[in-house]
Amino acid sequence: MAQTNLIGKNILGYTVSEKIDSGAFGTVYKVIKTNAAGQYVRALKHITIPTEKQYNSVLNSMGGDVAKADSYFSLMLNNIVSEIRILNDLSEKGVQHIVRYYENDILVSDSPRRYDVFILMEYLTPLEEFIKSKNFLVRDVMKLALDVLYGLQACHNNGVIHRDIKDDNIFVSDAGDYRIGDFGVSKIVKGSAKAESMKGTPNFLAPEVYLGKGSYTKSVDLYSLGILLYRLLNYNRNPFLPRFPEQYYDHDEDAAFEKRMSSEIPDPPALGGEAIGRVIVKALSNSAERFQTADEFITALNTAIDSTPPELLDERIKFDTPSGQQPLSEAKQYAATLSETLSEPASEENLEDEHNSTINRHLFESIGEMPPVNVPDVESTAVNQNPDSQQASPVEPIVQNTNKRVVDTVPPNISEPAQPAPLDKKVMNKFVFFIPVVILLIGAAAYFIVLPSIYGQVVSFIDWLFTDPQNIIATFRNPNAVLPQINAVFGMKIFWWIWLAGLIASLFFVGKQLQAKPEPNVENAILTKKEPYLMIQDVTNALKQTKARSSNKQLDPLIYSVKKLEEKLSVESDFGYGSDAVIRCENDIARQIQFLMDTVPHLENGNLEEILSGMNTAVSNINSLLRKRTELKKK
User: Is residue 198 within 8 Å of residue 339, measured between CB atoms?
Assistant: First the structure.
């Protein structure tokens, strides 16, 4: 029952490339999907319930009762399923600033009962790795705070309390956006309901949660964020610890923790200035006096940022403290997660594979270097282009600097329409529903029209099937007719038996068709399900952020057109299903979206008019391709 090594296996359409991290409850892998368009990276969380050690321990504690042990681990599985449902619900609603969920699978095996849970998610950089890789400033901490607050705002509006906000559960996208992950201990509440169980990490827990003082509200997430911000702005030290660079000891940590649990008010953190410090201290107040909603926290923090001098916002966040500044004996494990969590901090050897220098990869970033190609203007009957824009010569790319990859400002080609394909299997399947109708019509015509006109009367269908032919002849008005001979009547009996068998068989195939499962995702599909909608959301948000930084009104028409495209994609049927022609069209859409995502970061440092022209062309291409896709789906 030990966890299986998944390297090289194909799961949910992706090949497992390497292990990123592992803990007591599961392992996170980097997975790659390769097709004609390139290689795409995501994260795969594999959770095994139970591990061999867990099973033996629980079985022993339950006196060897296998049924009770299975029931115990079934409840544990329900916690995992709860996380999946939360992630799926938030992702489907387009909630920003949470780690995006894509798909899951749960495999069940017996003797003993075991569950292998696979969760496919966005591939992001952990906050700790991100901070190590860049010059982290106070203003970066403020962006982190606001991004997480917007994520919490959406979670709370959807009735979800995260309950475990901490640095280990914050991740960063390639665009520099911060996202909340690991909803393993989250609680769904309705309306003004309050949660009561104690889950989370003690070093970040609000006092009312840790001390079990009855119920609590969503403000506990804001408290945990306050602790995270305090540590970032205080040389990674908790409230009430001696100021850096003083040494501190185990008893200092104990005393600091007790003061925090008694809701004492700490001094402001060392960095960030007075205004920001006041906001963070308010977040750490008792349950009645702290911020009650993410909206309140956001408003106060924005006001504080606006009043803080730039030189304070540009102060560097430092974590490189001398070893002598750490506790001189082993500290208490306040940072360990309580209750059942889905993962634990990885051991040092698991943090980074020897072949993986960084895990900062975007879902759509190409892993292998592709040979440089000149991308001509789009040529397709599906897109209305100005003939003057179709040039044989390559378009000069925008180069940010010699160390950056070249980014073309012209969208990729749209594939030419394929030759007419054979009739789609789905079209053929529709005929299954008409066959019983045709057979019934033939039988009705024979029974009510043809045979009475020949024999002069209607003979019971049961008689045709089961009565002796001689008895049927005796019922006819004209016994001298040609057909009433024994052989002719016997032939009609055979006809009715064949007719009945055909009707039953056709109804059987209709039943099978009604119960048929949806066809699986086509293997060469670049995007599946609602992924195009989710990716365009990222483009929209990136454009809005660029506009906020540059205040360039030239971006407004593009933002509007991308937003309209986002609305259109939100109601499109799932991608990755259909004929080869449909998949080719969808892959063209995927490449256009990829072009938009690659181009947005260069709006602020390239030829703006040329880039805007290319992006507008890509949006136009996508709209045309969506119309084409609709027509192909109807065929």
Answer: yes
Amino acid at the residue 257:
F
- Tell me: the pLDDT tens digits for 27-66? 889 999 988 777 889 999 898 888 888 888 888 888 888 8
Q: Are 206 and 216 in contact (CB under 8 A)?
A: yes
Are 177 and 285 members of one domain? Answer: yes
Residue 74, H or E segment = helix 66-92
Residue in the structure block whose two tokens are 């969506």: 626
- Residue among 36, 37, 45, 38 nearest 16 (CA): 45
- Measured between alpha carbons, how far is 284 from 282 in angstroms, rounded to an integer? 5
Is the predicted pLDDT of residue 373 greater than 60, yes or no? no
Is the confidence at residue 583, as pLDDT, over 80? yes
Residue 106 in 3-state DSSP?
strand
Residue 2 belongs to a domain: no
Asked whether residue 208 is domain-assigned, the answer is yes
Sign of CA dihedral 602, 604, 606, 610: positive
pLDDT tens by residue, 61-79 = 888 888 888 888 888 888 7
Query: Which 3-state string (H, E, C) describes 559-623?
Result: HHHHHHHHHHHHCCCCECCCCHHHHHHHHHHHHHHHHHHHHHHHCCCCCHHHHHHHHHHHHHHHH
In a domain, 356, yes or no: no
CATH number at residue 20: 3.30.200.20
Q: What residues make up the domain containing 277?
A: 125-350
114-121 and 38-49 beta bridge pairing: antiparallel
CB atoms within 10 A of CB 247: 13
Bridge partner residues of 40 (DSSP): 33
Calpha distance 19→118 (Å, rounded)? 14
> Are residues 261 and 201 both part of a single domain?
yes
Give the residue from 628, 573, 259 showing the smallest Cα distance to 418: 628
Burial of 293 (C-beta count, 10 Å sphere; 0-12/13-18/19+): middle
Asked if residue 399 and residue 252 are part of one domain, the reply reads no
d(CA 260, CA 199): 18
The count of structural domains within the chain is: 4
**Cα 548 from chain centroid?**
27
Tokens of 379: 């040529």
Nearest to 472 by CA among 447, 446, 461: 461
**Which helix (H) or strand (E) segment is 20 a member of?**
strand 14-22
pLDDT in tens, 217-258: 899 999 999 999 999 999 999 999 999 889 988 889 989 999
How much is the pTM? 0.54
